Amino acid sequence: MRQKGRAPVLKTPNCSVGNTVLDREAIIEAQQVLVDQGLDGTVKFLVEADLAQKQVVLPVPKSCPSGDCKSTKFHQVVEESEHTDYQEIRVQEQAQSLSMGSLPQSMTVILTDDLADSCRPGDDVEVTGIVTRQWGRTIPGEQCEVDLTLLGNSLFVQNKRSDAVDLSASIVHSFCDLWRAGADKPLATRNQIVSSVCPQLYGLFTVKLALLLMLIGGVERVDESGASIRGQVHMLLVGDPGTGKSQLMKYAAKLSQRSVVTTGRGSSAAGLTVAAVKEGGQWALEAGALVLADGGLCCIDEFDGMRESQRATVHEAMEQQSVSVAKAGLVTSLSTKATVLGVTNPRASSNPRDSLEVITGLSGPLLSRFDLVMVLRDAQGPDWDATVSEHILAGHQGHHQPHQQSPDNATNGHSKVWTLEKLRQYICWVKETFRPDMSREAEGTLLEYWQMARSRDDRHAARSTVRMLESLVRLSQAHARLLARHTVTRQDAKVAIMLVESCSNSSSISSFSNVLQSRCPGDPDAEYLKVEACITNTLSAWQETLNDY
Predict the structure, then answer these.
(1) Is residue 497 within 8 Å of 535, Cβ to Cβ?
(2) The model's pTM
(3) 352: Cβ–Cβ under 8 A, 6 or more apart, which residues?
(4) Cα separation of 432 and 441, whole Å?
(5) CB–CB of 26/127 below 8 Å?
(6) Contact 427, 255 (CB under 8 A)
(7) CA distance 231 to 40
(8) What three-state secondary structure class fits 68?
(9) For residues 204 and 255, what is the distance between their CA atoms, to the nearest angstrom?
(10) How far apart are alpha carbons 124 and 160 in whole angstroms?
(11) Residue 59 has pLDDT above 50, yes or no
(12) What domains does the chain contain, in order, with CATH numbers?
């Protein structure tokens, strides 16, 4: 609840000048720190006058302010001058707080003294200040422009709490009770959660599981050398028109507490990372989509529409989680610890058996930065077409039964899907509570599979690098967090292998390739035993091949 007498910063009318306001916004632009005030005097009579500096140039009066002196020559008394730091930033409404179809509003905030240079573009801040008017330059014969600005009194950077959701004790207890009740069958409980993701789409169980693991992510760590190892799981959806890619992307943006949605064709390289703009005679940095999504999710539709120069800027942001800037004399590095969800259509001339580079039109170095690349092919089949059409027509007839409730959940006993808010609370809870460690069994399984993938004759060179092993670790950690575990088990490792195999067109585990028509299994334990047996047999056959040599 807001304090009495305070109002949101960007909703303040002109009549509120002089009032104190409080709100939480995102910084989109930050100018350089300037000197704010100096003390000047005339040369002849040494008459002192206080002059407040604005922008870059210190204003000089046209004549001596004493009235008796007619001198027009001035100099600054440096030893008696008083200086204070002065900086102007621009804040913008957070995208997730906007209603559908509305444009974000922005406002200039003036920071002085210790508040100057206390934040960077892309930060989430809570700012309190007094609304004032800022007059523009006066030009003879033209109307003077005036803008509302905020004279900041306090500013708190809240990036670390960007994923914070109001988790009451009752909600946490309900999640704990859920896993205590489902301790004997954890996969059935997991499937209930996965089935609640985008319930209006029929099937796509494997994709929904991958999407949920992407939102949860792995564990971010710092190694002994001080280098940060990313925990974000990047995902690329490649699918034919009408396969539900856009709906999945929008649902993921709603689930994330901080999200930015953009397109590859409509965004420039600076719009994705950071731009240098000139205002008031000085240069300032303006945050792009990846910087604004720091700590959250960045959804990029039409990913294949980006030019080569744009794709090069995304490389550093996806792997090193930062953007290096050297523009207009401004040299700095901005954080981009954001999960990237790319959506694109396959090339029209591509064949389902072609490599991912041919299907997507993306280079190998960029594809290797995605942990998962899901290809959704609209394969024709009478049984599948009949089931999907029945589900769509039932929705238009007013049957208030989500598809996962009727065909999928009816077989495993779940009668109700989770709400969007409950899913957001659960994702926030597992991310804040669980930081699972790898077990020996999980490490051995992942290492053995990675070595087998490296030795395949038909291996994809860009997808079978060391980054593949890191992706397997992140997916295993995310699955362990989804199941509320403090340790990554062999089961988590084999589910991660299943997801990676489902991305391959030439998979040696062929039963996992059709991700579009994958459904929630009626018996999750029996389905997992099939998956485990298939992976174990594949790894055993590879070991026998090595022994023969």
Answers:
(1) yes
(2) 0.80
(3) 375, 377, 505
(4) 25
(5) no
(6) yes
(7) 55
(8) coil
(9) 18
(10) 9
(11) yes
(12) 1-31+108-136+146-160 (2.40.50.140), 169-535 (3.40.50.300)
pLDDT at 273 over 50: yes
Task: Please calculate the CA angle 70-74-77 and round it to the nearest 5 degrees.
Answer: 135
Which class for 383: exposed (0-12), middle (13-18), buried (19 or more C-beta within 10 A)?
Answer: exposed
pLDDT higher at 525 or 313: 525
Which pLDDT score is estimated for 361?
A: 84
3-state helix, strand, coil in the chain (%, to 5): 40, 25, 40
Distances (CA, A) of 338 to 323, 435, 519, 528: 12, 19, 30, 31
Q: What DSSP assignment string belongs to 21-54?
A: EEEEEEEEEEEPPEE-EEEEEESSS--EEEEE--
CA distance 345 to 269: 21
**Strand 124-135, strand 146-157: pairing:** antiparallel
- pLDDT bracket for residue 349 (50, 70, 90): low
> Which residue type does 380 have?
Q
Which one has a higher pLDDT value, 237 or 544? 237
- The Cα 211–Cα 164 span in angstroms is 20
Structure tokens belonging to residue 296: 């959250």
Q: How far apart are CA 246 and CA 252, in angstroms?
A: 10
SS3 state at 83: coil
CA distance 10 to 159: 20
Q: For residue 237, what are the CA distances in angstroms to 78, 342, 345, 515?
A: 62, 6, 8, 11
| Dihedral over Cα of 237, 242, 246, 247: its sign | negative
**What does the pLDDT average to over 32-58?**
51
User: Please, what is the average pLDDT of the chain?
Assistant: 79
User: Based on C-alpha coordinates, what's the Rg of the chain?
Assistant: 29
pLDDT in tens, 198-216: 988 888 899 999 999 999 9
Q: Is 261:95 a contact under the CB 8 Å cutoff?
A: yes
* Per-residue pLDDT reduced to its tens digit, 225-268: 777 888 999 999 998 888 889 999 999 999 998 888 888 887 77
Measured distance CA(477)–CA(437) in Å, rounded: 8
Query: 444 — phi, psi (to 5°)?
Result: -65, -40
Is 275 a residue whose pLDDT tops 60? yes
